[in-house]
Write a structure and sequence with these properties.
single chain; 622 residues; alpha+beta; 17 helices
Length: 622
């Protein structure tokens, strides 16, 4: 049988006794390689420079030396020193006990020492050493595998993981940091980690670091770290200090999206709070009635204004139905609200009449609008409506209408009563002139002609007053027509001089409106341009521009023009510039134009300079 060579170190300061184990080992069939040391330092040196399998230590060394040798051997080998067999004389059991405490594998008495016993001791000690090394290797392998698992977990984690020291530097970072912030681990570890923290979060971060240096864990600590693009991301830290090594271990969750969601939610909550406050303010201060009902038409909210209209308190409405609160118009209200909920289309500015519980004998008028309450998921859950008391307005409108009718009747009566004597005066003057033909002087004939002109002008003034008074007093039927044809009709009715040039733009629109009123406007403006022109060959140009909801018409002439200080004056009733040059002017035509245009919701203006003609602009709804 062939045995592997075993290296034995014999440590003994007596050279004669040192040979005794050598003699015993030489008698064995097993092959041994022998090393000899005459001192502790020499034995340690041989252990460092050779693969020693076993050490034979003679107890003739002092106890202190033996213990020192064992301690030094263990320290140098970090727990993996070769097994040591202590050879002792009888009576040195105290030395053996201390040696065994320091790691000696076995001991043997010199008087019992034989080749077989020595070999048995060596074999047993080496088996123990081999087993211990195997255990140590297994532990080393387990630790290495655990470290590999830890490294894999550290490197592959989608969360950010960090190890920092108590000096304020990162000492290890996993790849998730670079993916999140854009900086490499080397860049992040090159500076104190506080440099990467948002300035507003540094004070709290320093306080958390101080707690860690005192051995206290910091859980769910939040701060912001700077990214390479200059932005910041929110981190939530769970950290645990390890004081013996002066390290801090941390797992970091990126909560930026969560923070953004929280910020958005907070803004939405603030918006909702603001909207609720605004609604509350509207309900409290609105000069009209406001109300909200559920799908069964029970009042769930009502403001004081509407409660006062109904003659009940706010509390008397909440939770009650239309039938319980205002039975006189409940059926009509329920029908309208049902229509709104079913169609999802509001009903705007509907006039209603009825009575309220505290005034059952008095009819009231209301202007009411109904709106469906539609949730984001599409469900219709009730109706919101507004109520405006218009009883006084309706009464005033009735009185005004009655007075307008009286005024209209009065205007017709006055017109008839005034125009009849005027016609008589005109006819009488003509009859007198006819009867005295050939006897009247030239001056008298001129005076009679002037008299009839003044009578005709008075008749025209009365007609103008009647037209002015009737504007807006009735609702005319709307007609669809071509504006170009309307203007041609107005020009034809004016009998302008044949030398006068009328230019009408070809792009005039079609309108559906009060045809007669628009005809009056064009007739007065064109007639005004003819009447006040200083030449018989004048020119009038009529054009139009689309201004969105309105058309803007322009009537421009090349006449003498009007000084700017008279631009407002000419629209006043009975105001005429240089009436001596226009004996047929009543001073009412432009007043009629202004009143008609403004009644239709438009505006009228003049652009003119003396000697540069005049352009009248007016707008008319589409």
């Amino acid at each position: 049988m062939v045995y592997p060579i075993c290296t034995v170190l014999i440590v003994k300061d007596n050279s004669i006794d040192r040979e005794h184990p050598c003699v015993l080992l030489a008698d064995l069939s097993h092959a041994y390689s022998l090393l000899k040391a005459a001192s502790i330092s020499e034995g340690l040196l041989l252990c460092r420079s050779n693969d020693v399998d076993i050490v034979l230590l003679d107890t003739e060394f002092s106890e202190k030396n033996e213990v020192s040798f064992l301690a030094a051997l263990n320290a140098e080998s970090n727990g993996s020193s070769p097994p040591v067999i202590v050879i002792i004389d009888e009576g040195d059991e105290g030395v053996v006990l201390e040696a065994m405490k320091q790691g000696a594998a076995d001991h043997v008495l010199k008087r019992d020492l034989t080749p077989i016993l020595l070999q048995e001791k060596i074999r047993y000690a080496m088996e123990k050493a081999t087993l211990r090394r195997q255990i140590q290797q297994m532990e080393t392998d387990r630790i290495r595998e655990a470290e590999l698992d830890r490294d894999r977990f550290f490197d592959l984690s989608i969360d950010l993981m960090a190890i920092a020291n108590t000096s304020g530097y990162f000492v290890r970072l996993n790849p998730a940091w670079e993916k999140t912030l854009g900086f490499t681990a080397e860049e992040l570890m090159a500076q104190p980690y506080i440099d990467w923290v948002h300035p507003d979060d540094r004070s709290a971060t320093i306080s958390a670091g101080q707690a860690l240096t005192h051995g206290k864990p910091v859980i769910q600590f939040e701060n912001r770290y700077r990214c390479k693009d200059g932005s910041y991301r929110w981190f939530s830290w769970n950290t645990q200090p390890y004081i013996p090594q002066g390290l801090v271990y941390g797992v970091v969750h990126d909560i930026t999206e969560q923070k953004q969601a929280e910020l958005l939610l907070r803004k939405k909550e603030e918006t909702i709070y603001t909207q609720l406050a605004e609604i509350e303010m509207i309900y409290s201060t609105a000069p009209i009635g406001l109300c909200s009902t559920d799908a069964q038409f029970r009042y769930i909210r009502i403001n004081k204004h509407l409660a006062q209209i109904n003659g009940l308190s706010v509390e008397d409405h909440i939770g009650r139905t239309f039938q319980e609160v205002i039975p006189s118009i409940a059926d009509q209200l329920e029908q309208l609200c049902s229509q709104v909920m079913k169609s999802r289309i509001p009903i705007i500015d509907l006039e209603m009449r009825g009575t309220v519980p505290h005034q059952p004998d008095i009819m009231h008028d209301w202007l009411v609008s109904y709106y469906p309450k539609i949730l984001p998921d599409g469900r219709v859950v009730g109706v919101n409506f507004t109520v405006q008391e218009i009883t006084d307005r309706k009464n005033a409108q009735a009185i005004l209408e009655e007075r307008n009718q009286e005024l209209k009747r009065f205007a017709h009566v006055v017109s008839h009563d005034l125009k009849a004597p005027l016609r008589a005066v005109s006819n009488l003057s003509q009859w007198i002139e006819d009867d005295l033909e050939g006897t009247l002087t030239t001056d008298t004939q001129y005076q009679m002609t002037l008299l009839r002109r003044r009578v005709d002008r008075m008749a025209l003034t009365i007609d103008g007053l009647l037209d002015y008074a009737c504007i807006g007093s009735s609702n005319a039927a709307l007609e669809e027509f071509s504006v170009a044809e309307l203007i041609a009709e107005a020009i034809d009715s004016l009998a302008s001089p044949p030398t006068f040039n009328m230019v009408i733009s070809p792009d005039l629109p079609k309108l559906k409106t009060d045809r007669l009123r628009l005809l009056q406007v064009f007739a007065n403006l064109i007639g005004n341009a003819i009447c006040h022109h200083d030449r018989s060959d004048g020119r009038v140009h009529i054009s139009c521009k689309d201004s969105g909801h309105f058309y803007e018409f322009a009537v421009a002439d090349d006449g003498p023009g009007i000084e700017p200080e008279h631009h407002e004056k000419i629209f006043a009733i009975f105001q005429s510039i240089n009436p001596q040059n226009s004996p047929n002017s009543t001073g009412i035509g432009l007043s009629i134009v202004k009143k008609i245009v403004e009644t239709e919701g438009g505006t009228v203006r003049l652009k003119s300079q003396l000697g540069q003609g005049a352009t009248f602009y007016f707008t008319w709804p589409r």
